[in-house]
């Protein structure tokens, strides 16, 4: 990342009046607006901007001719209008290579330019021989009001500068050798005038750039263009958007769960709900709102959550007397009532769960499924008379979470305990199932089950008489545990590929897609009909035995189109049926995971299909588990630590378990990574944190008390811990 | 209700400086605070108060000796501290009779005194011969700051007066002949000092008075004291609180759904979800937040909802740039995306549903289940190419809603269409299932299915090319439909009785409770064990065939206690098993609905129990249907209209269907009721509104076009309509 102090100096020389504002990272325009709203020294009525790079369609042999567009953040940068103004055809958003190579801006600056690091000041990074190919388009409306300040990120999204129109013009003019500079009136652009197009342009802002990119790519948006290996972040977004798992939403950090992904969630719900019900837990529903006084009751707990709490302060047109929080989690919502309901040891255990949504208004970059401001989960909250019962449940639930991942999602996880630094705010101990994303080499917390001890019961006065009346009162021993829609993201990242989504059969809404094939204009209408009828008959037979089958009998699409369509959407098994198959009284099966083809006789098809679905389910887990096992490396000296991470692995190290050491590991691994290794632009190196202390410690190199040392600090190691980069 | 103008005059004579504030009704302290926060002319830093009436335990022959306590609204009025200060024993909150007879305050002033109509100024209503029995306790903290204004409702909760400490003291002093006036320091009360008690006192405010009342009644809180016939509102609250269906919550208008009621909701979900899935609807989840610009897009729609929208304006410690609404319903959340997703007629129909919670911050008196600020529901949103398909679905869903009520909840409903005045804001037509609460004679909207026409599709640009390319584009025809947790309240009101809750077997978490009986100290341990073992064996046998059975083998409780315990909680069937039953190889069954007893042979018990559960389910519906039929009266002249309502019936009238006429009916029925009939204090008369135009019109008196006249305005009647008082 280019340092921006030289730029600031240049801006000052050009007459910049206001001091830049330093702030937390803003990854999109909503966050940027929020951050500025909370900062002091911000000029009133300033305009937020976005800076986009387009490029025309051109032969690969020619040098890239980028068009930089500087425009109000809430305005549609019509590629048509820009093309007309510049006399260029087929303008589309430039990919990230252009950004990094020519403008030297880093990851996140592409589609997310809105609140990212790209600004007109990136022109200062362009090599002189490139400048002659660069055009600049300035939004006229930004320049109209000479008093108004215009806000930009000067190559970093943790700083904002405010310049006036004269300064912006002066800066652009100071960049010598540009091909062309144009001021364009976007409000008069042809698209804005036509009502239908205008309505479509009212599309939610967060989705705007993506949709622009999608539209620019035309029919190609039906498939995945990005590569899982080469640009994982872009690949992930394409997979979940284009498979129709998810859509972007107009409120930043929130996403729409479309039926394909919601079905996965419902399958998780069914499995997990049956499991916890069998353990004796009952479902209930507590309100989503928390009074401020209840939220603030447990000090450590609220410290952990307060920065992310969303507050309701207004109803209709009236201000509320006291703001009301939306639950980030429900300990402080539920436990005052536990105190009321639990009066005697006979009232224990109290075991409740709810399926609900919670809100954590994080300012970190949102990630669909993995980090969203509202998410769905279940949260269980139980109170017991004894420590042992509470601990037993903590681990029973953890085992159930492991089964959700392994048995439903075909995703391997490691059961473990969190370090003191990483445990749940306010609890005594957090157990966790940790996942692993091979493509990035990062760990991911996949579900946690907390033993809360008596911390909350003391704070909320959840107390009963001892059954033995001669003994003192007992504060309940509590647990809380949650698993969220994050699981869906981990599943997608694990199995999907450059063809698109890949769903494990158990959670696929459509498990088998039946496609007519081998038909052409030479075939008679009767042959077409016989094939279609067989498709429907096979569908009916499969449905009768509980297989979720569907037939794609749409007219006007080729079999090849349909194959890609359902591959993109992750259907685990395809059956192709054509006239030749009918002759042979068989169908052709194609596995989504391996693309293996095998004919299956129509006779006994149900059993063969069920078997194949089971096999796909099992083999997905087996493959993922082998990869994970291969990528967890036991590391016995510090020198191997960062290189292991850089090979996209998790390091299993003998560790002292001290919080101070954990912080040193993070700092030291960040530093080492920056010094020793070439930085990967797409996935920048970052410090490692502890993922967990595995319940199953390695049997081959046991820790020898007093002899085995922590590889970082050299003090006595207590257990092996997994350390890695993580989500 | 006593007029308060005389009081205001008296207060002015005593030196009241501020003009009283007029406002909407505030039924509790949270609403009061909200209302005042939104009003102008409110003195800063004022103290909100509550006024409670306690009475000591005393022989019935003695005159009642009420203690009026005037205290800060957020302070616990410790009965122990008051008793110590006054030298009285066993103080408890007085019941409503004391309030109405001695202080002449009306309904809602009892437990809800916090924000209700009771204030020290009610002393002005006390007859002189009673005053000598009345004690007054003033909260010292209210009187400490001579500049601070103290807020009271002067006998009406639509007005607030602000007085200072001197004025309050002067008013109380001006009431001649009081037995005793004490200023008490509640912060120094003994309970406040002991940490455990203090924590219990931190109990949520809204639940405080109820809990105080509950605690005051001691063991009696195990049963229902109020009568369904005599004090329906109190009865309803006791049933749902004491059966553990629901608990009050610290945020006003929100309630906790405890497992017993949430189980009912889950059964509704299962049934309805299977039904809509079979119709081809898929589940999804949209975010709970809506951007202001999307919410405001459909004008009529937002007018209907804007006054009740809750706004998030702050995240962590930063103000948001633009406030974000919490969905009151999801039309404006979902339809911008429908516009994106629906590009061709091939994309239709689009049929989505979600199970979620919505927030409507109503300022009307909340009612558990029936009117709550957050509630659970499902909302279906479908888009079709043609009007006919959309209409067909609207009615199919309505039929499904009817089946939920009839088949699961054993509650009869009438299918109909809403009047123009009562239809969904923004839609073309609303169909409805209307319920009826016999105990109050009021109708209740039980579920609605809307045909939205093209109103929203035009506003949100949900448009496709006609399959015939020579024809113009087509805006989608849409539906939306929802059924909420309100259904649970209707079910409770319909079946439950003075013994407590009564659950229809299909939605009862425990369908059969097995209780050992007929055992005493004379029986040997072996006999005890044999009975217990048989209970468990019966439980296991019933569970094996899918009956939700449980055994109550708790030690230390009598069979009678257990019978009442499970009757209160609504378990539809009880099996009693004692030594004599074992001899006869039978068990004694007792129905919760009729209390009929019948021995059932152990041999073939499963079938007998299943049959009995089916019979209970069926008979509950048959009885409720007979009552409803009996209470829907065809009324052919206006003079019979209000008397019919007053007999707790619904009037079915020939009606012109004009909105103006509907308003006249409401106004005229309110006026007539006030003039002609003695007012029922518990259920005040109110105007009638249209409930629906039944799909099934009466066959015996068909409307003769041009001849049958509207009974209110005399214009031509179009159809029969149901009119009634309603929830």
Structure summary, number of beta strands of chain A: 33
Query: In percent, how helical is the residue content of chain A?
Result: 25-40%
- CATH topology heading of the largest domain in chain A: YbaK protein
Shape of chain A: globular
Enumerate how many helices of chain A there are, as a single number: 24
Radius of gyration of chain A: 29 Å
| Greatest interface by residues involved | A-B, 80 and 79 residues
Number of domains of chain A: 4
Please identify, by name, the CATH architecture of the largest domain in chain A: Alpha-Beta Complex
Distance separating the two termini of chain A: 22 Å
What's this, in brief?
Chains A, B: Residues 667-686 are annotated as: Disordered. The structure is a homodimer of 727-residue chains. With 727 residues, chain A is an alpha+beta fold.
How does this model look, in words?
- The longest helix of chain A has 27 residues, at 605-631.
- In chain A, helix 23 (641-646) links the parallel strand 30 (632-634) and strand 31.
- Chain A contains 24 helices and 33 strands.
- In chain A, helix 12 (259-278) packs antiparallel against helix 16.
- An eleven-stranded mixed β-sheet of chain A has the order 11-15-16-22-19-18-17-32-33-31-30, with helices on both faces.
- Chain A starts with a helix and ends with a strand.
- Chain A folds into four domains: 4-200, YbaK protein (Alpha-Beta Complex), CATH 3.90.960; 257-287 and 345-495, BirA Bifunctional Protein, domain 2 (2-Layer Sandwich); 505-628, 3-Layer(aba) Sandwich (Rossmann fold); 635-724, C-terminal domain of ProRS (Translation Initiation Factor IF3, 2-Layer Sandwich), CATH 3.30.110.30.
- By secondary structure, chain A is α+β, with helices and mostly antiparallel strands.
- Strand 13 of chain A pairs antiparallel with strand 13 (310-315) of chain B, so a sheet runs across the interface.
